[in-house]
Amino acid sequence: MTSDAPCTILTAGFSFHRKPFQMSEAEGFPHYLIRLQTEGCCSALIDGAITRVESGGLMLIAPGVPYNLIIDKEHYPLGEPRVESGDYHIFCRGEWLDRWWNSRHRASLMHIPLNDAFVGLFRQLVLEQRRLSDFSPEISSCYLQILCMEIDRITLDRPSVSPRGYLAYRMKQFVEENAALLFRLEDVAAHVDISVSRAVHLFKEEFGTTIVKYVNEVRLEMARERIVYSPMPLEHIAETCGFMNYTYFHRQFRRRYGMSPKQFRTLSREKDAPALI
């Protein structure tokens, strides 16, 4: 079966090691490797030195770069030292990947906050590669391109690589993923295991706004899109976008957009209406 896909996944899989494991390629691979450490830890050759890779460690290995992976016993808080390492790995190649890789400097190792959306891209790629009867290399190629672009977005969106910046970024991500649900400041702080006061301070320091204001901004943008493009009643839109009651939503919306939700919907539909001849 031939394919016009701009990039090709050679193999994609998930491995969980409970026994020591080692892989060494002195001359490197003839293709790209994207590897995400999801559980436990390992050691790998990064920029000429053996480096510890913990959960959330994303490795980007270019063709021809020497590769050495070591998985061995680690000391954990409870119990005896043991081997416990899980990872997703994708071997791939293609002209699109060449252009993406060379579009900017690629760090061999970066730390990525693990969330369902990002890990889900790896999981979906693995599932696509396992299909037999209806496998589509074009679909796999699209998922791989989305993964690469998501890596870029995470890299650019993250305001700081410091531990403080990392915590703030994870809180921001929590807000964006859960904006449609009702949650408290305590839930945001608990997501990164810090106090509410520290969470509020870190978020304001990194993003220049409060958590509450950012939550409202995300929810209002969700509501604006639904007001324009969906037939849902305004009260239902407010509820499904995380607002506790319509009165509060109405007040926040008017403050943000200078008109009521009803006026906004009427105006947007008038703009989109076809001209009468």
Q: What's the architecture of the largest domain, going by CATH?
A: Sandwich
Indicate the CATH class of the largest domain: Mainly Beta
Q: Supply the number of structural domains.
A: 2
Q: Residue share in helices?
A: 40-55%
Molecular structure report:
With 277 residues, the protein is α+β, with helices and mostly antiparallel strands. It has two domains: 8-157, Regulatory protein AraC (Jelly Rolls); 163-268, Orthogonal Bundle (Arc Repressor Mutant, subunit A). The chain is 47% helix and 21% strand. It has helices at 95-102, 116-130, 137-157, 163-178, 185-191, 196-207, 211-229, 234-240, 246-257, 261-272, and strands at residues 8-17, 21-25, 32-46, 49-54, 57-61, 67-71, 85-93, 109-111. Strands 1, 2, 3, 4, 5, 6, 7 and 8 form an eight-stranded antiparallel beta sheet that branches. α5 (185-191) crosses α6 (196-207). The protein starts with 7 loop residues before the first strand and ends in a 5-residue tail after the last helix. 24% of the residues are buried. Keywords: DNA-binding, Transcription, Transcription regulation. This is AraC family transcriptional regulator. GO terms for molecular function: DNA-binding transcription factor activity; sequence-specific DNA binding. InterPro entries: AraC-bd, Homeodomain-like_sf, HTH-like, HTH_AraC, Tscrpt_reg_AraC-type_HTH. Residues 169-267 form the HTH araC/xylS-type domain.
